[in-house]
Amino acid sequence: MFEKSPKPNIKELRKRHDIEGLIEALRHADWHVRRDAAKALSEFKDVRAVAHLIEALRDDNAKVRRSVASALGLSFFGVANDPDENAWAFDENTIRKVIESLAEASIKDKDEEVRISAALSIKIIPIPIKLEEGEEVLKKIKKVEIAVFKGFLLLTNRRLIFHGYSLQESFSFEMPLTEIVSCEVKSSLFGKKKLRVVAKRIILKSFSNLIIEDVAIHGYSEPPASEFRSRRIDLDGIKDLEALSLEIMRLAKARS
């Protein structure tokens, strides 16, 4: 039920970072207000907005639904830069609810642009962090760069895990320590040091292909995310490269 209340000033609410005010605006009678509120909420990456955005995916105006679908994806964009500050964005239950709502919109919504926005947003949702029983995080390094991806690195007693994102998608890859062949520090042509890890097997995880087949049936398609073919992983921007390299190889040898 939409509310016939005085028209809120979305710009002012955004300026004040008034999350509750923007959430309230999602229920305003004027669809322009609801659309602009959704766009504003996408900027703040606040968990309080997620449930309300999911509910707003059922708005009766397609332009509002389109903005809401985009806002759900953008709410997660870049959270891998600081996983401690944005721990909510890796919560399995939160991610499941968002994925389910976006998947439904991308398949069932009558408006093609809403379906496209929902499908694109799914690609930005990060993979939840789930450690196995008895697995411990030994090191967590933020703001790691690999090619066009930015994210964070987890070294556990069982795996080397990278959670990354780019403008196009989020993804995660992990290398079981038993599969790591070598790990060494290299200096590039311009003197910047890189950590180079070579592994027999890399496990790539992404939501990109979750619903691609179903979405294609409804008129939207694109090639699946390309497979990670390289066996060499360059990890830039990590401090104390030598110590990390020694720790990875020590653990890998201990588990081989």
Q: Name the helicity range.
A: 25-40%
- For this structure, the quaternary state is single chain
Number of strands: 8
Q: Strand percentage, roughly? A: 15-25%
From the spread of the alpha carbons, the general shape counts as: elongated
Order of helices and strands: HHHHHHHEEEEEEEHEH
Topology:
Elements: H1 10-15, H2 19-25, H3 31-41, H4 47-56, H5 62-74, H6 92-108, H7 112-122, E1 137-146, E2 149-156, E3 159-165, E4 170-176, E5 180-187, E6 193-199, E7 203-205, H8 212-217, E8 232-235, H9 241-255
Antiparallel strand pairs: 1-2, 2-3, 3-4, 4-7, 5-6, 6-8
Can you characterise this structure?
With 256 residues, the protein is of the alpha+beta class. Helix content is 38%, strand content 21%. It has nine helices and eight strands. A five-stranded antiparallel sheet has the order 1-2-3-4-7, with no helix packed on it. A three-stranded antiparallel sheet has the order 5-6-8, with helices on one face. It is elongated. The N and C termini lie far apart (60 Å).
Which tags fit this structure?
single chain, 256 residues, alpha+beta, five-stranded antiparallel β-sheet, three-stranded antiparallel β-sheet, 9 helices, 8 strands, 21% strand
Quick overview of this protein structure:
It is built from 9 helices and 8 strands. The chain has helices spanning 10-15, 19-25, 31-41, 47-56, 62-74, 92-108, 112-122, 212-217, 241-255; strands at residues 137-146, 149-156, 159-165, 170-176, 180-187, 193-199, 203-205, 232-235. The strands form 2 sheets. Strands 1-2-3-4-7 form a 5-stranded antiparallel β-sheet, with no helix packed on it. Strands 5-6-8 form a 3-stranded antiparallel β-sheet, with helices on one face.
